[in-house]
Specification:
Elements: E1 2-14, E2 20-32, E3 36-40, H1 47-55, E4 62-67, E5 70-71, E6 79-82, H2 94-104, H3 109-122, H4 138-149, E7 156-160, H5 168-185, E8 188-193, H6 196-202, E9 205-209, E10 214-221
Helix pairs in contact: 2-3, 2-4
This protein binds adenosine-5'-diphosphate (ADP) (2 copies).
């Protein structure tokens, strides 16, 4: 069952001098429900550009994207997004940071709190709901950001180098946790990374982008079962 459909998707940035930077030329790809896909490629090849288009945060200048059959025309509560920096609000507790998308969507307080507790447990932050972001390590903050992105049970989870700012050992631990979280949540995930080993460890399939302007050069299926 196809969840996400990219049909000859491209983006050219307009520059101030009237020129253009073609970051993505044409990407055609389907993502099935429950798949974990990595977008892999060197710096500047257009990975973030592609992810931002999928998130509806950047328009396509070519082609079309559908999520669950509906065209992606703007930010969609059906996709959750996690960036390199957790960007938690420092004056809110971890639980209230996680609840934020629920507040914006008008979810009743009791329901939000119950969902936050469930998510705190999923990301192994039980007992930290009342803490403030500064009291948590970088890895814990990123786990809180993942919990926040799952608040509205998005059908698609998008991550741009979510652990890129962490040291290598913490990153390994986080990737093990991420794999478990995504399996437990049954999430469909698209992860941007420049690390081949990270992509191989986490994904079912890897989309390899070449140098700019990017088209998909290769889609590699990872045979090892995820467990
Ligand atoms: P990656 O995530 O793979 O590092 P990006 O998607 O960030 O790559 O960028 C792809 C290309 O588009 C790069 O050459 C970058 O310089 C260019 N680019 C990104 N954002 C803009 C922008 N706002 N205006 C012009 N060019 C941009
Ligand atoms: P980089 O070149 O970006 O520093 P590496 O290619 O050295 O990255 O490794 C990238 C990351 O892949 C590791 O830091 C880790 O997050 C992930 N990774 C690879 N194999 C495993 C594994 N067996 N368990 C957990 N994480 C792994």
């Amino acid at each position: 069952e196809t969840l996400l459909d990219l049909n000859e998707v491209g983006h050219t940035y307009r520059t101030r001098d009237g020129g253009g930077v073609e970051a993505i030329r044409s990407v055609t790809e389907q993502v099935r429900k429950g798949e974990f896909i990595s977008i892999l490629g060197p710096s500047g090849c257009g990975k973030s550009t592609l992810l931002m288009m999928i998130a509806g945060l950047l328009p396509t200048t070519r082609g079309a994207i559908t999520l669950g059959g509906d065209p992606v025309l703007g930010p969609d509560p059906d996709s959750g997004i996690v960036l390199q920096d957790a960007v938690l609000f420092p004056w809110r507790t971890i639980s209230r940071n996680i609840q934020l998308p629920g507040e914006i969507a008008g979810m009743p307080a009791a329901q939000r709190q119950a969902r936050a507790d469930e998510l705190l447990s999923l990301v192994k932050l039980d007992g930290f709901g009342g803490a403030y972001p500064r009291e948590l390590s970088g890895g814990m903050q990123q786990r809180a950001a993942i919990a926040r992105s799952l608040m509205l049970s998005p059908s698609l989870l998008l991550m741009d180098e979510p652990f890129g700012a962490l040291d290598a050992m913490t990153r390994d631990e986080m990737n093990v946790e991420l794999k478990r979280i995504c399996l437990e949540a049954g999430a469909t995930v698209i992860l941007v990374t420049h690390s081949i080993s990270e992509a191989v460890f986490l994904s079912d399939r890897v989309m390899v982008l070449g140098n700019r302007p990017s088209t998909v050069r290769e889609v590699v299926s990872i045979d090892a079962p995820r467990e």
